[in-house]
Amino acid sequence: MEYWRLIENPTGKTYQQFIKVLCDHSNKFYFVTRKEFTYNKKVLDQFQPYVIETYKTKKWANTITKGSPATVYVIRANKETCKLLQQLSNSLYDWIAPNLPEDLTFIKDNVAWFTCTTHEKIGGFSISSDDYRNLISKIQGLKVEKEQH
Question: What whole-number distance in Å separates Cα of residue 43 and Cα of residue 99?
Fold first, then answer.
């Protein structure tokens, strides 16, 4: 498994293409809300028809909180949810309270292959095949670098 981290916030056309690739190659994605923040209910309502499950936890991709548990919204990745992700933001790190839920994470066959910790501006891919490495290399303007372990 290789880890490739974002070295720049995908914005504009790069963000649009980035979200499309993530949606097209994932079964589902999730984002989280925290009790400490208020979120735009209209945004959450738009995703409601596609929610697979919601649950509370203190641990999700790259995050362990000492505070209140977060609510995780697990959502089907499809054309409709992809369009919502593209329309609601013009940048990955805009997914932050109070306007939008946080920490977009994309999952294919129960593997979180893209994770994000929005408030810390950290995002990256867990790549296990040449196919996925090629996918991310084709996103115009996406700036990533391979982590050295």
Answer: 8
pLDDT tens-digit series, residues 45-98: 999 999 999 999 999 988 888 889 999 999 999 999 999 999 999 999 999 998
Domain chopping of the chain, boundaries = 2-146
SS3 category, 14: helix
Nearest-angstrom CA–CA distance, 87 and 9: 17
Q: For residues 82 and 2, what is the distance between their CA atoms, to the nearest angstrom?
A: 25
**What predicted TM-score, i.e. pTM, was given to this entire model?**
0.95
Q: 44: closest CA among 94, 102, 91?
A: 102
Q: Residue 70 corresponds to which tokens in the numbers above?
A: 């977060």
Q: At what angle do helices 12-24 and 79-88 cross, to 10 degrees?
A: 160
What lies within 8 Å, CB to CB, of 14 at 6+ separation is: 139, 140, 141, 142
Residue 51: CB partners within 8 Å, gap ≥ 6?
73, 74, 75
Q: For the chain, how big is the Rg over CA atoms in Å?
A: 14
